[in-house]
Amino acid sequence: QVQLVESGGGLVHPGGSLRLSCVDSASSFSIYLMGWYRQAPGKQRELVATSTRSGSTNYADSVKGRFTISRDSGKSLVYLQMNSLKPEDTAVYYCNARLSVGGKDYWGQGTQVTVSS
Q: Which of 4, 16, 33, 47 could cross-link with 12 by S-S, CB 3.0 to 4.6 Å?
């Protein structure tokens, strides 16, 4: 069983930076895909960034050039470095993992990111 634990959210001014972390604390599975999604109030959950075990990454257009996803595959860790944050980045950020292509989605509990002056 995969159990994802997130950390690193908080309140930051526009233009600031935050780094989110997520670890699979319960299993020793080799995770195929890890990534981050976010959900703002009144909106659907949306993809932010993903990274495969081989290092292939994918980003939402809205965060390209500002956010960087990285993984420590040996420890089932994934990070999201967020720079040049904007108020529209405010959301609950969720860690996501899949053990295989098309496999079941596992989710963390979410961490709040608020960008406000």
A: 16
CA distance 82 to 78: 13
Rounded distance between C-alpha atoms, residue 51 and residue 114, angstroms: 24
Distances (CA, A) of 21 to 35, 42, 43, 65, 105: 10, 25, 23, 19, 18
Q: Supply 22's token pair.
A: 């997520």
Q: So what's the pLDDT on residue 45? A: 97
Question: Amino acid identity, residue 40?
Answer: A
Cβ pair 25, 3 in contact under 8 A: yes
Confidence of residue 96 (pLDDT cuts 50, 70, 90): very high
SS (H, E, C) 76-96: CEEEEEECCCCHHHCEEEEEE
Q: Span 47-76, mean pLDDT? A: 92
Spatial separation of the C-alpha atoms in residues 32 and 39, rounded to whole Å = 23
Three-state DSSP at 69 gives strand
